Amino acid sequence: MPNVPVTDEISARCICETCPSYPGNEAWLSCGRGKSPQEINQVTCVCPGCPIWEEYGLSRTFYCVDGVEGD
């Protein structure tokens, strides 16, 4: 199970803010932080295009809805 650390360096490379499903006004890096406290309108997910997704060998999408891998 990949464990994405929530650090400034990793957060700076996160692309959650570019996602059409991103609700805004909250912390991003959902693959490390888990589910969003806000309701997500699932439009599409940009996770597979994120360098963090590839670097950590992630396999899912919509971490903002479903939480981190293993949840």
Short description, anyone?
This protein is mainly alpha-helical.
CA-based shape: globular
Tally of helical segments: 4
Structural class: mainly alpha
The SSE string, one letter per element, is HHHH
Largest sheet: none
Spatial separation of the terminal alpha carbons: 10 Å
Strand percentage = under 5%
Q: What is the arithmetic mean of pLDDT?
A: 91
Tags for this model:
mainly alpha, single chain, 71 residues
Helix and strand arrangement:
Blueprint: H1 8-13, H2 30-33, H3 51-55, H4 63-66
What does this protein structure show overall?
With 71 residues, the chain is mainly alpha-helical. It has one domain. Helices cover 27% and strands 0% of the residues. The protein is globular and about 25 Å long.
